[in-house]
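Standup notes, structure subgroup. Blocker cleared on the zinc ion input:
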Amino acid sequence: VRRTAIAAARSSADPPRLTIAHPCPQCGAPVELEETDRLLACPYCRVRLLLAIDGVPRYLLPAKRAAQEEILFIPYWRIRGTLFTCRRNEMAGEVVHRLLDRTFPAVDWPGLPQSLGVRPQAMKLSHASHETPGRFCRPTVTWDRLLSLSQELPAYPGSEEEDAEAASLPSAFIGETVSLIYLPAFLRDGIYDAILDEKIAPLPPIDPTRESSFESKEGFGIRFLANLCPECGWTLSGTHDSLVVPCRGCSRAWEVKGTALRRVPLGVVHSGMRGGVLLPFWRIKAEVRGLTLRSYADLVRLANLPKVMRDEWEGRELHFWVPAFKINGAQLLRIARAVTISQPQAIADRFPEPAPGAPHPNDPFEPDDPTGPAIHPVTLPAGEADESLKMLLAEVGTPRNTILGRLREIEIKAIESRLVYIPFRAEGGEISNPEIPLAVNRNLLRYGRGL
Ligand SMILES: [Zn+2]
Ligand SMILES: [Zn+2]
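Run returned:
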């Protein structure tokens, strides 16, 4: 039944995610990872290890055969995520969004194929490592520059004046997967694709004798960390795709930073609920310039909420609440708006106690477990949540047309973020919290993990 529900939510136009083959570091068995995986769970020896990737993940397309010539790896950026753009129209304004999934060459050599096509999805990739034979060309173009140069940013019909205004409205790219995928090639009278054994471009404008044209392989590859809490030694309650792994033993949360675990400030909104689901949010304190938005009272005025203003609201500190989980663009803004407007207050620094001796429910979709609420994985990092703050302002501001016109002059910068879990009750196809109030469709949550 579940499989069907996921299939229904997933559009047939969505390309599948990348698969990376990696030997199990403990028993050597071949394990397949997805690009969003943060935990290696070996089906053979049962070891569970956290992945530590330093910097941008680097994947290799497999060369077909060992060429006589030295393999030259040509870098391509792969980006996947949701692009939000503000748009004004006659009635009001709106924030539009769509999914982007693209590869672009990360070097500006003439004649290179402008995309890797479907090959990254169709072939089994491997991690680049310091042992990979061959040379890696250094990327010379950044992915965000490529994105702004590409046709992906929306063009608006109408007068030049309108275009100029549209171009100046902010956009944000979030929920992104950014990685480098290397095309194996070799040089003869031109660049040859080492998968197809076929000439694809003229010789590159680089000097092969200059070391600066290439990257050092020194830091390449992934490392593995024990799936144990550094504080109390309990097994961490992470799922395969969780960027932050909480510990039920001591109520601390950890993220892999470089090659070590670093503590993430954690909170849990207080509730008497047993069971259910804890959904993760980034509670962000931000500095806003160009708009008075410091207190809850300022927010009530900005959103034009039908509430009778209370004096104490003028002094209540304002936080932005952004989902720490991937979900489609419209839902992301809707959920962020609802929670930001409700400003949850009672925050404990501990998870609710599980029943003594109970197993730790890791699966977020088994919320009927009586031992305690399931923890939904963190799949959106705080940095990406920052990106969405301006979009959130556009979503909250009422009337929207007024705020869109001012967004250009507004600066918003996150200065502090904390991971806070909010309890939701599971009922049928939905999870809900009547105090916010907010209901979220469970299929959309499940589907969001694949974005
Ligand atoms: Zn193993
Ligand atoms: Zn612990």
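Discussed briefly. The two ends are 21 Å apart (CA to CA).
Next: hand off to the docking folks.
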